[in-house]
Fold this protein.
Amino acid sequence: MRVVLLGAPGAGKGTQCKRIVEKYGLLHLSSGDILRQERAEGTELGRKAQSYMDSGALVPDEIIVEMMTAAITRAPQAGFILDGFPRTVNQAIELDKALARSGQGIDAVLNLKIDDRLVAQRITGRRSCPECGAVYHIENLKPKVEGICDNDGAKLIQRPDDSPEVVSNRLETYHRQTEPVLDYYKSNGTVCYDISADSGADEITDLLFEKLDGLAKSLSEIGN
Ligand code: AMP
């Protein structure tokens, strides 16, 4: 299965991806996580991305496309789920071209829809693990011990770009540059599912699993 998960910042993409990966054995490729890793390691790519990320703007397409198409080559037979990529129509076109070179394509797009007003509340309460990337929320998705990751005991942090000013830039960038990606996929006939992300994490997971079970079934029927 080759799937794209779209949605505004704070829609819950990271949390849902972890659950999807556990159930379907896909490779989770989050462009934001890869960029944060590059920054933590102090690589040239990480340094180039830094100022864009800190202001809530998008990192230039050429950097991202090269990084993500290289990462996709490591996907297992089961496939991959893309999280945070593509974020512009140009990235989506370049991704399609890269996949077509090995006779592949995107099987479906899952679009998490969330009200802008909920985004701010979700993001400012978000805490993440700097070691394993697990995401928590101070009210809706608490770790067992406050401030500590359930998986590895690391101290949870708030991402610097989760501050209210940067969040409003990220939302504006999302509406202007990323929403048209969904229209791109709809107009070229890719299967797209709209899923409401206003409810709790478990309800969203149920809706996603229902769609992905159907997709897995239809792909196995056509021998893909
Ligand atoms: P995220 O964790 O997906 O919210 O990404 C954090 C930041 O990384 C974004 O605000 C962008 O600056 C950058 N970024 C992540 N993915 C992309 C992408 N596909 N294209 C451009 N910039 C990206």
Summary: The chain has one domain: 2-116+171-221. The chain has a mean pLDDT of 93. The longest strand covers residues 2-7.
